[in-house]
Amino acid sequence: MKMNKTLLSAAVAVGLLSTSTATQAAGFQLAEYSATGLGRAYAGEAAIADNAGSQWRNPALLTYLEGTQVSVGAIYVDPNIDIEGTSSHTSTPSNSSDFAHSAVIPNFYVSHKYNDKFALGFAAGTNYGMETDLGTDFGGANHGNEASVTTMELNLNAAYQVLENVSIGGGIRYVMAEGSFGAIASPHSPLAGTTLKYMEGDDTAWGWQVGTAWQINENNRLGFTYKSEVDLTLEGHAKGVGFDAVAGLIGSPVKSQYNGSMQLALPATAELASLHQLTDKVAIHASINWTNWSSFKELVADIPEFGAASSQDIKQENWEDNYRFALGTTYQMTPKLALRSGIAYDTSAVSEEHRTATIPETDRTWLSIGAGYQWSEQLTLDAGFTYILAKDAKMYESDPGLGGADMFGGSFKGEVTGSIWLVGIQANYRF
Predict the structure, then answer these.
(1) pTM
(2) 394: enclosing H helix or E strand
(3) CA–CA dist 364, 374 (Å, integer)
(4) Cα gap 152→175, rounded to integer Å
(5) What is the pLDDT of residues 113-161, one digit of tens each?
(6) Neighbouring C-beta atoms of residue 154, cutoff 10 Å
(7) How far is CA 121 from CA 199, 212, 292, 344, in A?
(8) Which of 23, 137, 180, 327 is the 20 to 30 A CA-CA neighbour of 195?
(9) Mean pLDDT value of segment 71-81
């Protein structure tokens, strides 16, 4: 399906290799790239080279991986997100429970040390994704009642040791995305259940990433990585009385659906990380992550057949840059068993003024534990478990004026609460 996620107020969440769910990191970002890192709350990822998956966060780490290595795994995400509020058209409370879908996020990585200084890698995973369905009885359905985006990302990476203690790396990113967004008239509206706007579409695009790793001394390492913005033009079709009204006003034929597209940029990100081996058994690691969410200001649909009126405003988003802070530990309990733990804090990328039910973005706290077991000289098995506590967040959605969403159910005021469980497993094999 040509996924024109274009109208996606909530669909502005793209990125997942399989089926998306609620947002795990900032905005509609997904941090879940490996079960190994999950057990330490993804603290220090750009500085830790423990398997082929390390290239996903910093391609320079490929020079630290000996021989040929393969990592494969998956993370199960179980969000429990609820919303409760009222519509201005009625004083009757309205709510939606567990409206973010669960999913399995797979990953696959290969690394190959070509010689003492040069290494190559291939990675398949995801950086963004979400899926929400608030139902047809939700009081704020006129502002959006369902959204989904799925993506798959393929990386080809290379790294080179430029100095005895410094490596650099980079790679190209190929992103495939599809999604949808829908809004229907509120159950409190005379047109209850009528599709106001629905869009779906897809696109592919290229991006890039670079990174460096500095081995300060035997026990301390710093890593830095940067991923470029990826620009998508989600092409597909749109339908609903909102588009029909525009067609009628400009004298264009009213159709069951209209071809359309929307520009959507997946934001640039950066990470600064450190690894500190305190003793033979104990290491600590930390990360600071930045995401350029301020580039996400608005959603505008382009319907070419509408001519001069082709640009149709969907929603003002006005997001802000966000930061993530993580601290983790690794304890080598025995030569074969490593225990991991971590804590992280994600700041919200949106204020209460601009928060929406379809993307229930808020501050999040991560609590993680994990373990790695050396099954044999070649095979290592990893498992991770995380509980994410989302901060209760208020929201107010209003779109007044002629043709605005408020005409089909009024404004909506509510509060989102919830938590998320993550469980991951991974196998790493060295040839």
Answers:
(1) 0.87
(2) strand 379-397
(3) 32
(4) 6
(5) 999 999 999 999 988 887 888 888 888 888 888 887 788 999 999 999 9
(6) 16
(7) 37, 15, 26, 28
(8) 23
(9) 92
Task: Please report, for residues 7, 284, 287, the alpha-carbon distance to residue 328 in angstroms, rounded to integers and kept in the order given.
Answer: 39, 6, 9
Provide the 8-state DSSP code for 128. Answer: B
Q: For residue 279, what are the contacts with CB-CB under 8 A and spacing of at least 6?
A: none
What type of residue sits at position 14? V
Name every residue whose Cβ is closer than 8 Å to that of residue 77 and which is 6 or more positions away in sequence: 21, 22, 24, 32, 102, 103, 104, 105, 420, 421, 422
Count how many domains the chain has. 1
CA–CA separation, 160 and 61 (whole Å)? 9
In whole angstroms, what is the distance from residue 136 CA to residue 156 CA?
43
Q: Indicate the length of the chain as a whole number.
A: 431
Residue located via tokens 């998306």: 20
Going by pLDDT thresholds of 50, 70 and 90, the confidence category of residue 26 is low
For residue 15, the SS3 value is: coil
35: number of Cβ within 10 Å: 28
Give which of 195, 200, 156 is closest to 179, Cα–Cα.
Answer: 200
Q: What angle do CA 148, 52, 56 make, to 5 degrees?
A: 40
Domain harbouring 92, CATH code: 2.40.160.60
Cα 158 from Cα 204, distance rounded (Å): 22
Helix (H) or strand (E) run with residue 37 in it = helix 35-38
